[in-house]
Amino acid sequence: METPKQLKDTSFSTNNSDNNETLEELERFIGRSLETSFIDGLSTSSISLSSSQNNIIEQLKQRLEKLEEIHELKFKHENEIKNLKQNFQKLTEENNELKAENDQKINFLEEKIKKGLQKIKSENENKIKSLKQEIQQLKSGNDRRPGQVEELTGERNEIRELENNYDDLFKRYETIREHCVRLKNSEKELKNSLAEEATKYEELKDIADSQLHQANLEIQKIKKEHEENTLGLKYRLKMKETYIQTLNLTIQGKDNQIDELNKLVEELMEKKGISGDGDDPEDGGSMLSTISYEW
């Protein structure tokens, strides 16, 4: 799996290669313009062009750095969103597990208490019924033997003990019920916390989407400006090259004119028999120097 740094390098590889090719092309144009600028006036204009191109190249480098910062921010937001998703999913799973466990415990306790109460109730009803029958028989027969009275007293004590046990069991049931209520309240609080986390997640997701949208717009704008600047530089360099070629052709034409004038002067000197070795202003050497100076 690629790291955010590797993903960023991959996403920038194409743009950086294109930008590097553009920069190398500009540097080659600048080098050619400096090599061909052997005339003083042309050299000055080429140097000023090189300075403006260097400024534009520097601006393009700064924009590329800005694009890298924007992509780093984008990966940071994506990682935050991913972590929030994982935390939200983890909380949801824990909530579901806790809810299932609590429901299972509550159902088990309720079933156990229900069975115990039914059993105690059934036993008490049977004993009370049998005692009532025995008391009724004793009353009808007027037979109050001491053994039977003691037996009835013991059974009455057992009934009271059973009632006390029933009260204890009921108190335990109330305690368990309160515990179940607390568990349900905890479950509600956990659900509210999950809802708040989900709301925060959606808000952060909206903010990240908005920032990513703005970053994409900024990237498109910078790419468009970069393309326009590159086209403008190519156009200006093409015009300068054309201007240099025109000057070279003009220089060649002037050289040809000078050669032709030199030939004409030599022919005139030969016809008139004038020597070119003296210091007379009218001799051929002075005429050539005058013509060259005027040009």
Describe what you observe in this structure:
The chain has helices spanning 4-36, 40-141, 146-272, 284-294. It has 295 residues and is an all-alpha fold. It has one domain. Residues 1-16, 33-46 and 276-295 have low confidence and may be disordered.
Keywords, separated by commas or semicolons:
cytoskeleton; mainly alpha; single chain; disordered N terminus; rod-shaped; TACC_C
Q: What is the topological layout?
A:
Blueprint: H1 4-36, H2 40-141, H3 146-272, H4 284-294
Helix pairs in contact: 1-2, 1-3, 2-3, 3-4
Mean pLDDT: 73
Radius of gyration: 53 Å
Oligomeric state of this protein: single chain
| Sheet/helix structural class | mainly alpha
Distance between the termini: 73 Å
Largest sheet: none
Which consecutive residue ranges, at least 5 long each, have pLDDT under 50? Answer: 1-16, 33-46, 276-295
Shape: rod-shaped
Quick take:
This protein is an all-alpha fold and 295 residues long. It has helices spanning 4-36, 40-141, 146-272, 284-294. It is rod-shaped, with a radius of gyration of 53 Å.
